[in-house]
Design goal:
This protein has 141 residues and is mainly α. Among the domains are: 56 residues, no CATH class; 32 residues, no CATH class. The chain is built from 4 helices and 2 strands; from the N terminus they run H-H-H-E-E-H. A two-stranded antiparallel sheet has the order 1-2. A hairpin with a 5-residue loop joins strand 1 and strand 2. The chain is elongated, with a radius of gyration of 32 Å.
């Protein structure tokens, strides 16, 4: 069908597909000189590599700055700060749904051992569970 459409386009009018549209194509790239790397000494190659890495880092930083500016502009349109948008509190930490860090004990063993109920069952509880007791038997009231 594409061939027929192209054949017709020559007779009647020019039909352009998205991939043929010059407005949608990326800008033309500069022609890069072909380097014969075997002609260079090791120190020269190392220096060239460092220059390329610096150029890559600079381009990445440039892209990040552009993206940050776009995000800030979009957030501003909606009346949000970047911190609100990213869920960051004034202390610089992200707001999470679950509490982090040490949790209060939910279970207590016969010798005063405590467990929050998170993660695998503690060693002190395993023999009691094997005897038929349940976790609920150790709940702190």
């Amino acid at each position: 069908m594409a061939k027929a459409a192209r054949a017709k386009s020559k007779e009647t009018q020019e039909v352009r597909y998205d991939h043929e549209d010059p407005a949608r194509q990326a800008p033309a790239r500069k022609a890069h000189p072909v380097l014969e790397l075997s002609d260079y000494s090791l120190p020269d190659l190392v220096e060239m590599k460092m220059e390329v890495e610096r150029a890559i880092k600079a381009k990445q930083e440039e892209h990040v700055a552009t993206i940050r500016a776009k995000v800030a502009e979009t957030a501003n349109i909606f009346g949000l700060s970047i911190h609100e948008l990213m869920g960051i509190t004034s202390g610089g930490r992200r707001v999470t749904k679950h509490a982090r860090g040490p949790q209060p004990a939910k279970y207590r063993g016969p010798n005063g051992e405590e467990w929050s109920g998170r993660g695998p069952s503690p060693r002190w509880m395993k023999p009691f569970l094997a005897e038929g007791k349940t976790k609920e038997d150790f709940l702190i009231e």
